[in-house]
Structure formats: structure tokens, C-alpha cells
# Entry
Amino acid sequence: MDNVFLEALVRALAVGTPLLLACLGAVVNERAGIVNLGVEGMMAVGALAAFAVASASPDANLWLAVGAAMLAGAALSALHAFATVTLRANQFVSGLALALIGTGAAGLLGKRFEGMPLFNKVPDWTLGGLTISPFTVAALLLAGALAFFLNSTRPGLTLRSVGENPAAADVLGVNVGAVRVLAVLAGGALSGLAGAFLALSYRASWADNMTAGLGWIAVALVIFVGWRPLRAVWGSLFFGVLYYLQFRLQGNSPVPPEVFSAMPFVLVLVVLAIAGRRGQQGDAPAALGLPYLRGER
# Structure
């Protein structure tokens, strides 16, 4: 029984890691008032950038590959920042376009890397009898750091004020546009880091559609956890358990495998419906999704 529990925990932590990293990035975006539905695309380009750098030679620096993934995610998110902050375009349409651009570009440019070996992967750590990825440890630490930043620091208060009442923040001398752009770039970097985990640790390979919808689940997870970084830890672990059960039960049940593949996405709809009935959407930043123009009411 203990072995089964530990296996489930390790698997849940592994699958939950990219969800947590991407969710934290989306929390940063949305706390500043910007909705970014392009998480899936940013994860995809991050995974591709990481694998491209890591597979260049046996002596490739893996942490340089991680940096490349974060840079790629931030660069793609800059398109969203330009469209939504500078041009004040519809944030939902821009985010959807970003998801399509990112996954499409990664699939096209990644054709040459399919089947190529990854000379080495980011080594796992052994902590308390558990084999755990450094990415997982980093994600947990980032969740705590982000919670502290948002709730206990002046820059965090500034970020939240821009998402709640950008006009009031502007009156107090805050550059609303700059704060929102930086938040979008930071969110993109974290999504790229989630992609790096997939390419360098979890799968240690490159394949088209390797994000497999995790970015969309991360977007929904933000609402489920009420825009709270520490709650995101438990939310990502919950969905990690669902993914573990999906693989565990396939082949051991008369139920068609497609049912298990759809299970995490069905649960996303269920938990969002529950959150909506309980009024959890009331925790959303007041100016979420609304463009800001100085002097406009």
C-alpha cells in the first residue's frame, strides 16, 4: 500500500509540475488585469527551445536550455502584451491567437527534432525517499515566493492595484502599461519554464503536441484556485492525481481508454461549474480583461 501511495504521489507531483508553473504565470498575468489564454502555445515554444539547445551537443548546458525556454515563452508573450496593452485589443481573442501561433510554430519548427536523442536530461533529486525533479522543487518554492510577493511587498501591492483599479493606481503615479507588460512577460517566462520541464525532465524528448492540453488546464486552474499561488499547489496536485489514475486504469478496465483520456478535461468543467456556483469568480481582479486608457471611465 505504501509503495502504491508513493508511486501515486511521485507521478502526481511530476504531472502537476508544469500545471503549477503555468498556473503561477497565469496568476501573475491576471493579477495585473490581463487574461492570457495563450499558455498552451507558450509552453510549446518553451519546450521546443529547451530541446533545441539541449540536443545541440552532448556538452550542451542544460540550464542554458532552461533559460532559452523562458526567453522563448516571454518573447511569444510580448506579442500578447503589445496587442492587449498597447493596442488594447480583445484579450481573449489575442490569447487564443497566441495559443494557435505557438503550438503551430512549435509543431512546424520541431519536425527536424522528432526522433532525435537528448544526450542528457536534468537529473532528478532524491529527497526523503522520493525521486523528484528540480523543476518540481523550483515550482513549489516559486509558489511560496509569489504568494509572499503579492501579499507582503510593495511591488506586489502595485501589481494587484493595477488589476483591481488601474485608474486609481495611475493617479498614484503607477505606470499601468509598464506593470501590465512586465506581468505578461513574467507569465510567459513561467509558461516557457513549464515547457522546459516537459522537454528536459518529464519526457526528455521532443514530439508534436507534447503539451497535450496542459496549458488549457492551467488556465482553468487559475479560476479554480481563486488566483491564489499557494492554492495552486494543491490544485495542480489534484489534477496530477487525475492524470496518474488515467494511466493507471487504462488497460485494467473494460471502460474505453478515450474515457480516461478525457477525464482531466471533464473534471476541469466540473470544478469550474462548482467554483461558479460558490461564487469563486468573485475573487477575480475587478479590472480583469478590461483594457485601460488614461482619462477613460
